[in-house]
Amino acid sequence: MELYPLQFAPQFRSYIWGGRRLGEKLGKPIGNAERYAESWEIVDHGNDQSLVTSGSLAGKTLHELITEMPQVMMGSAWAEGAAGVGPFPLLLKYLDCQRVLSVQVHPDDHYAKAMDPPDLGKTEAWYVIDAAPGSVIYAGLRQGVDRETFATAIHTGRVADVLNVISPRVGDCIFIPAGTVHALGAGIMVAEIQQSSDTTFRIFDWNRLGDDGRPRALHIEQALEVTNYAAPQVVPQVPEKRSDLGERLVACDKFILDRYMGTQPIFLPSGQCRILTVVSGGGTMRWPQGEFLMPLGHTVLLPAMLEGCEFIPLGSGATLLSAIAACTEGHT
User: Fold this and answer.
1) Which of these, 203, 222, 191, lies nearest to 119 by C-alpha position?
2) Contacts of 293 (CB under 8 A, 6+ apart)
3) For residue 260, what are the CA distances in angstroms to 11, 65, 172, 235, 248?
């Protein structure tokens, strides 16, 4: 069987806060509509399925790939363990925030599993690829805000007063564990790696109306229940230097997120299924049987048993993000 870096068709989501920068900045094949909020690059979540676009596996969904050849795609630790019975555990997307998102929170795995229908929890991380002057990220509650204080703020319309505010810079990585109240502000674009979940509890929507002219639904009681009031203050991640030219941005029990920057070729070891996406510059993906260009915003998936892959930055260099599911173990 031929193995090669897998490319998938992006799936677009239109929400009231989106714009057109997914096409204008990242070159995504958006249409003529006014608002494209999200580009789902890698997804295996129910009916939302990434579809291979080229090579001998073209037309296969991501779920079909890992179901039919779990060890090839995900590695032996996945195939031989309990994780091997489930869907692909991560979702990668790009977000274009032309307006502030709702203030929201996601449940952890324990809470989400008990829902009807059940889902994964949602721990996520954002990598900032564009930030307009004065833009902000709301991430976590201010220190000392407990459930009672938060509930009072919600019911009196003062949610913004109890949120921790970050002024982001391009290249910042913000880690959002499940239970962290958050909202991306207007003028920001991010690449997001998250658990493969679509469960969101909306807390406050800035008193605006949805496309139907009505306020969007809120989920106050669920949000109060799943919020982590003891979480430490959220700040941008401090990159940890690695021995392989990379920097570790996040290492948690859901995923490992690394960053590679510069002009040097990047060798990508086999053994774990790896998501790669280009967040600045561009380069060439090369493996023993071929190569293709990876411009800004391009995403690929490397099967665990694919060997000999390199990313070759072009011109003045590139920034490449690499994400591996922690449940595949054996990561370095």
Assistant:
1) 222
2) 282, 283, 284, 285
3) 26, 27, 14, 21, 9
Lowest mean pLDDT of 66-80, 121-135, 138-152, name the range.
Answer: 66-80
Please report the sign of the dihedral spanned by the C-alpha atoms of residue 29, residue 35, residue 40, residue 45. Answer: negative
- Weakest-pLDDT range from 178-187, 201-210, 256-265, 278-287: 201-210
User: Among 56-65, 163-172, 241-250, where is mean pLDDT lowest?
Assistant: 241-250
Nearest to 166 by CA among 147, 144, 190, 182: 182
Spacing of C-alpha 171 from chain mean position: 15
SS (H, E, C) 58-126: CCCEHHHHHHHCHHHHHCHHHHHCHHHHCCCCEEEEEEEECCCCCEEECCCHHHHHCCCCCCCCCCEEE
pLDDT of 83 reads 60
322 burial via Cβ count (<10 Å: 0-12, 13-18, 19+): buried
**Is residue 219 helix, strand or coil?**
coil
44: closest CA among 82, 77, 93?
93
Q: How many CB atoms lie within 10 A of CB 59?
A: 9
Q: How far apart are CA 272 and CA 288, in angstroms?
A: 18
Q: Check if 202 is active-site.
A: yes
Half-sphere exposure of 69 (CA within 13 A, CB side): 15
Which one is catalytic: 21, 35, 147, 202?
202
* pTM (two decimals): 0.95
β-sheet bridge partners, residue 153? none
Give residue 174's pLDDT.
Answer: 98
Give pLDDT tens digits for 270-322: 999 999 999 999 999 999 999 999 999 999 999 999 999 999 999 999 999 99
Decide: 201 and 180 in contact? Cβ < 8 Å: no
